Amino acid sequence: xxxxxxxxxxxxxxxxxxxxxxxxxxxxxxxxxxxxxxxxxxxxxxxxxxxxxxxxxxxxxxxxxxxxxxxxxxxxxxxxxxxxxxxxxxxxxxxxxxxxxxxxxxxxxxxxxxxxxxxxxxxxxxxxxxxxxxxxxxxxxxxxxxxxxxxxxxxxxxxxxxxxxxxxxxxxxxxxxxxxxxxxxxxxxxxxxxxx
Amino acid sequence: xxxxxxxxxxxxxxxxxxxxxxxxxxxxxxxxxxxxxxxxxxxxxxxxxxxxxxxxxxxxxxxxxxxxxxxxxxxxxxxxxxxxxxxxxxxxxxxxxxxxxxxxxxxxxxxxxxxxxxxxxxxxxxxxxxxxxxxxxxxxxxxxxxxxxxxxxxxxxxxxxxxxxxxxxxxxxxxxxxxxxxxxxxxxxxxxxxxxx
Lengths: 196, 197
What we know:
Helix content of chain B: 55-70%
Order of helices and strands of chain A: HHHHHHHH
Mean pLDDT of chain B: 79
Largest sheet of chain A: none
Number of strands of chain A: 0
Structural class of chain A: mainly alpha
Radius of gyration of chain A: 19 Å
Low-confidence stretches of chain B: 1-11, 189-197
Distance between the termini of chain A: 55 Å
Mean pLDDT of chain A: 82
Strand content of chain B: under 5%
Largest sheet of chain B: none
Largest interface: A-B, 44 and 32 residues
Number of helices of chain B: 10
Structural class of chain B: mainly alpha
Oligomer: heterodimer
Number of helices of chain A: 8
Number of domains of chain A: 2
Radius of gyration of chain B: 47 Å
Strand content of chain A: under 5%
Number of strands of chain B: 0
C-alpha cells in the first residue's frame, strides 16, 4: 500500500478534526473552564495533535479512526493535567468569584425551567457545580456520563487501572451530586477548590 | 422506628456505607447477581441508602443532559488551520525575532554602561587588551616554605615517638605471659581429648 500524499493527509486530518472538534472542545471546557482560556487551549491542543496524527498515520493500517480518536483524547487529557498544575487566573486573580447567593442553592430540587432565561441560569449553575468536583474525579464523570464514552475507552484515555477508574467515577458522581445539592464537596473540603 | 429496630432491619443486608459505595456499580450493572440483590434489598429497607441512590440517579441524569458547548465557526476554522499548520517549530521566525528584540534591550544597556564607566568593568578591559597566560605565575609550594613546615612536623613526630609505647609495654601482659596464663589445662578424660604435651 502506498503512502498517502500530503494533500490526502490534509484532507483526512481535516475530516478527522471536523468529526471530533466539538466533543474535544466540550471535554476541555468541562475540565479547564475557569482555569485557562479554553479556546486558546483547544487550538494549542489540535496543533500538538496534528504532529502526532502525522506520525501515527505514517504506518498504514495501524491506526483506525477509533484509536486515533482515543489518542486525541489522551493528548487532551495530558495537556489538561499539565494546565491544571499551573493554573493561570486571569479574571479572578486567584480569588473565589462565586456569587454568595448561588453557593448553596439546591439545583436538584429546582423544577424544570419554563423559559430560556431560567434554563440558561440553571445550566450555568450546573456547570459551576461541575467545576467544584475535583479535577481527577471529574474527568471520569465527564467522559462517561457527559460525553458517553464507555468504561473501556475512558480507562484508555485516562490511563488508569480499572479499579482506580471506577473509584474515581463513583467519587466524581457523589461529589457532583453533593455540589448540585449545594453541600460542600468532600474533595473540595480536603484540598481546596480549583477556584480557591 | 428506634435505632435498635433500624439496626435489626439492616442486619441481613449491607451497611449504608457499603451500600452507597456499591451504587455506581449497581447502576451500571457491573455487580454480580448476588451482590446486586443485596444492594437492591438494602435500597428497599434503608431509607438513607434509597435517598442517596435517588440523588445519585438525578445527578447522573443532570450530567447526561448537559448539552454540547457552542463552538463558534471562527474557532472551528482556527482549529483546522492550527492543526494543518502543525506543531510550532521551536526556532520559528517569529520566535527568533522576539528573542532578538527582548535581548537587544539589556545588551544595549550593558554596552552603554561599559563604554560610559569602564572602571566598573575591569574584566572587559582585560579581555579586550588580549592578556594571555603570561600574566600568571606558576607556584611551587616546596620552594615557597612548605618544606620547612613538613620538616617541623617530622621533628615533632620523631621527638614524641619514644613516648608512644604499646599497651603490652605499659604494664599489661606480654604475649608470652598471656600464653602462659591462659593456656588450656583441661583435665584428661573429662572432654575425652588427651592433652598434648
